[in-house]
Amino acid sequence: LVRKLRDKEFVQIVSEYDVLCLSECWVKCPDEFELDGYEKKYLARSKCGGGGVVLFYKKWLCQFIDVIKYEVDSMIWLKFDKRIMPNNKNLYMCVIYMPPDRNVYYKKYNIDVFDVLQEQIELFATLGTVSVIGDLNGRVGIEPDFIVEDTLDKHLLDTIDFISYVSDVKITDRLSEDLKAPNGFGRRILDICKSTGLRICNGRFGTESSKYTFQNKNGCSLIDYMLISQDNIFTFIKALTVKDFNMFSCHAPLSVELYLNVDTKINDQCTCIKSVLNRVKWNEGFKDGLVNDMLTNVQKFDDLMLNLTEHENDIDKCVGDLNNLLTEICEQYTKTEVEFTDYCEHCIDSNANKSRKSFVKIDKPWISEDCKNLYRQYK
Questions:
Q1: Burial code of 94-132, b = ≥16 C-beta within 10 A, e = fewer?
Q2: Which residue numbers delimit the Endonuclease/exonuclease/phosphatase domain (predicted)?
Q3: Would you list the domain boundaries of the chain?
Q4: For the chain, does the N or the C end have fewer beta carbons within 10 angstroms?
Q5: What is the mean pLDDT of residues 266-283?
Q6: DSSP string, 290-323
Q7: Contact status, residue 308 vs residue 352, Cβ threshold 8 Å
Q8: How far is CA 16 from CA 6, 38, 171, 172, 221, in A?
Q9: What share of the chain is helix, strand, coil (3-state, %, to 5)?
Q10: Which residues, 6 or more positions from 57, have their beta carbon under 8 angstroms from its beta carbon?
């Protein structure tokens, strides 16, 4: 992940989303990585390498999202504030990476992650809506994720009124490109769905939601999922799409769009990002001062040239030292710090910062539309 966050194309892809849930990230130190404009939370394994879960969410969401629990070095539980949820109840979402079967993780931790997940789902279901998203490393095929014909006799229900039982119902058909029979972990996923009332969202939002999510030399499979409470699947989720595979992972991104009650009245906090940039500008009035400093440091330049002659194999180091010396001398005459503000949507929409107008660039008279189009094509 650390290396990928240095790649402009990767950053461009992930920056399209308000919340990023990344798994199998192999992170160890929080200072290793940042993503501009995002708050970050991460979970690394303490007993063995690999795995790891990283969460990024845009700073304007800080007032609506809380990380409330970390579990068995494989799950991060989030709480989405009820103010922005369609049913006015808190949404508890588990971001998970399920280690593959027979992984060293299970020897080191001696725990059944599916059992822990089910316990947590049952706990948070008493507090609000529950959802699970991530790499569950199990294929479920097209097996039903609900109990078929799950109804009690009507006469029995009328007679014994103390029984409160919510029957499983078939909400919609679930499509899938992965038609193979469920494997062991897939069976566990289906069991959790049947016992907790969660439903698999993949395949219930058109063909784009039913595609494979993983590929390697052995083939393709669907092992990354979004699960949510049966009653909320279509009131919470607007769209679910399995994006195309890319060069950065053997997993395809799972894109989920939620219905949220977010407007400018709720999002009333400024989240502008201020930063200081170095600006280089030459002033002819500094010419004499720069020349004098160059002459004062002439001995240092002579020493560098002598080192270059005596140590030809260290030419890269010599060039670096020369560059550092020139930078040290020149920066005091050419470098100035300029404060830059990346304005948030709240400040733009409410015109909170009127001075923003001063940043509008006025084209020169000779810059025509043809010139602009040619410049765009060149870029």
A1: bbbbbbeeeeebeeebeeebbeebbebbeebeeebbbbb
A2: 6-230
A3: 4-258, 273-378
A4: C
A5: 68
A6: HHHHHHHTHHHHHHHHHHHHH-GGGHHHHHHHHH
A7: no
A8: 16, 12, 31, 30, 26
A9: 35, 25, 40
A10: 18, 19, 20, 38, 39, 65
Shortest CA distance to 132 belongs to which of 58, 74, 176? 74
**Tens digits of residue pLDDT in 39-87:** 999 888 888 878 889 999 999 999 999 999 999 999 999 999 999 999 9
Dig out the tokens for 197 from the structure. Answer: 């009332």
Q: Is 134 in contact with 52 (CB distance < 8 Å)?
A: no
CATH match for 4-258 among 3.60.10.10, 3.30.200.20, 3.40.1000.70, 3.40.190.10: 3.60.10.10
Share of the chain above pLDDT 70, in %: 82
- Give CA torsion, residues 261, 133, 220, 145, to 10 deg: -90
Give the DSSP H or E segment for 66: strand 65-71
